[in-house]
Amino acid sequence: MKRNSQWTLLLATSMVSFMSTIDASIVNIAVPQLSRDLHAPMNEAEWVVSVYLVLICVLLIFFGKLSDQIGRIKIFQTGTLIFVAGSLGCGLSVNLPMMLVMRIVQAIGASMTMATNFGIITQIFPSNRHGVALGVNSSFVQVGNIMGPGLGGLILATLSWHFIFFINVPIGLIAFFFGHKIFPKEARTTQKISMDYPGYLAYVFAIISFFVAIYWGQAVGFMKPEIIILFLLAAACTAAFILRENHTEKPLLDLHIFKNAGFSIGVITAMLVFAVSYFNNMIMPYYLQETLKYSSAIAGVILMAIPLLNIFSAPIGGMIGDHIGAEKVSLIALVIFLIPETIFMLIQPSWGIVWLVLGLMLYGLANGTFQNNPMIMGNAGKQYQGIAGSIAALARNLGMSIGLSLSTSLLYFGISQKAGRRVTTYPAQHPDWFIYGMHFSYGFAFALIVSALILLIALVWQKNRKKTLSL
Fold first, then answer.
1. What pLDDT tens digit does each residue of the chain (471 aa) get?
2. Are residues 200 and 327 in the same domain?
3. Taking a C-beta distance cutoff of 8 angstroms, is the pair 216, 46 a contact?
4. Which distant-in-sequence residues (6+ apart) come within 8 Å of 406 by Cβ?
5. Residues 191 and 201 placed together within one structural domain of the fold
6. 89 plus 21 within the same structural domain
7. What angle do CA 101, 48, 412 make, to 5 degrees?
8. What angle, rounded to 10 degrees, do the helices at 3-22 and 130-158 form?
9. Which residues contact 356 (CB under 8 A, 6 or more apart)?
10. What is the spatial distance between Cα 176 and Cα 436, in angstroms, rounded to a whole number?
């Protein structure tokens, strides 16, 4: 395939990656307006965010396995159209039930594209250019993840929340027709579709019970018997899934892929980094609009500091990774991450906006430089590229889902600790309580980055040691 065609295909897949990822975060800032316009309580309106993320986690492995059997491009293109239809339906929604149904349609389409885009890219590009190609795609994915609150704020300042969804329709259709014209034609398959349905059901119950426990636990407390039972059910289903996959002839997920330390650590560190990104998505809009009293438009412009730096640093990180290795580049990124996390952990309103913008810019630089996709895909064998792409997307969405619940739980736990009573809303009369909760939450985010850093140091040391011994 010619280089021009390769880059056009990369653009088509990356545009869809951007849309499906941004829709996981852009809705956060619109939840108050959705709550008012759809006549739904705030806690129910937040389902619009969580339903999308959780369903993607449920479906990714299924579509990854299916794409290995019937073709990644077919799944990707079909998913693009389903996502566009769901976006249109979300924009036209007049009540919460309709919105939730359309978000489910969106999530089905998004999971189909997320499960296949990495596999398509590694199939199209030669191995010596995987780093830069996945780096470009990574910049779209990461910008989509962190650009949500900023872009959402700008849209809400000039238009209604409906356009948060409508904007996907023309972009999605353009990406689909790009792909239809240029994607290589896949051979028709006559093989019978094989799926480990008992294993998949165990996986589904594990994911759903885990997230129901987290979201319900936020409302009623995590020590309630029903919440503990749900966590135990999630653990039991996970154990059943692992047991099933290790003892079935055609597993849904070949667990041998995790024997590669580079792959496993790539998945874990990606999940940790995406979890930390949601601390910004959930906490920074409150800090800018409620504590510093900026309008949604100005808050949106300030939050754009992250994606602006991310756009440039991701492909550059990919190019450097092609020469020195994705793990080493990611190690440098994690060290940079510590600087903005320290700023967010200590910042006070009296510091001025310059320190916050500096922290956001450094965060964008580190986030783009972190090469999670090349690290994961580069450590998976050729036979695992399809399912590896699904696992990479699953790690990202699990990270975002965990970050969504963890950041708000820690924030309100810190606020409640300062207040001496249970608080689950912004303490308008006591902004110092919020600052305390924010610092508490970011302290945990700092610890997550340190954990990822320790894992990558161990991996790089192990790889260097093997090189030395082989000389």
1. 555 567 777 777 878 877 777 776 677 667 767 877 888 766 677 788 788 888 988 998 888 888 877 878 888 889 999 999 999 999 998 888 999 999 999 999 988 988 888 777 777 777 666 667 776 776 676 667 666 766 777 777 788 888 888 888 888 888 888 777 777 776 666 567 778 889 999 999 999 998 888 878 877 777 889 999 999 999 999 999 999 988 888 887 778 888 888 888 989 998 999 899 888 877 888 888 888 988 877 887 787 777 778 777 877 877 787 778 778 888 999 999 999 999 999 999 999 899 999 999 999 889 888 877 777 877 776 667 667 777 887 888 788 878 877 888 888 889 989 998 887 778 888 889 999 999 999 999 999 999 999 999 998 888 777 777 765
2. no
3. no
4. 275, 278, 279, 444
5. no
6. yes
7. 155
8. 40
9. 302, 343, 347
10. 47
Residues 268 and 212 in one domain: no
Burial of 27 (0-12, 13-18, 19+ CB in 10 A): buried
Q: What is the DSSP letter of 193?
A: P
Looking at 211, 226, 251, which one is the last position of a domain?
251
Domain final position from 251, 267, 293? 251
Question: Does 178 lie in the same domain as 221?
Answer: no
Q: 276 and 229 share a domain?
A: no
Tell me the pTM: 0.78
56: left (phi over 0), alpha (psi -120 to 50) or beta: alpha
- Counting the structural domains of the chain, the total is 2
Indicate if 97 and 109 belong to the same structural domain: yes
> What's the token pair of residue 107?
């999530």
Q: What is the CATH number of the domain that holds 69?
A: 1.20.1250.20
Please give the Cα distance from 406 to 400 (Å, whole number): 10
CA-based nearest residue to 425, from 160, 17, 4, 35: 35
Could you list the residue range(s) of the whole structural domain that residue 95 is in? 3-195+252-470
Residues 159 and 200 in one domain: no
Between helix 261-286 and helix 296-303 the angle, nearest 10°, is: 150
- Return d(Cα 381, Cα 389) in angstroms, integer: 12
Are the beta carbons of 147 and 421 closer than 8 angstroms?
no
Task: Find out whether 75 and 387 touch, Cβ atoms under 8 Å.
Answer: no
Rounded CA separation 154/159 (Å) = 8
Instruction: State the DSSP code for 260.
Output: S
- Give the pair of three-digit tokens for residue 228: 């503990």
- Alpha-carbon gap, residue 263 to 372, rounded angstroms: 10
Question: CA 14, CA 332: separation in Å to the nearest integer?
Answer: 25
Write out the DSSP string of 384-438.
GHHHHHHHHHHHHHHHHHHHHHHHHHHHHHHHHHHHTS---S--TT-HHHHHHHH
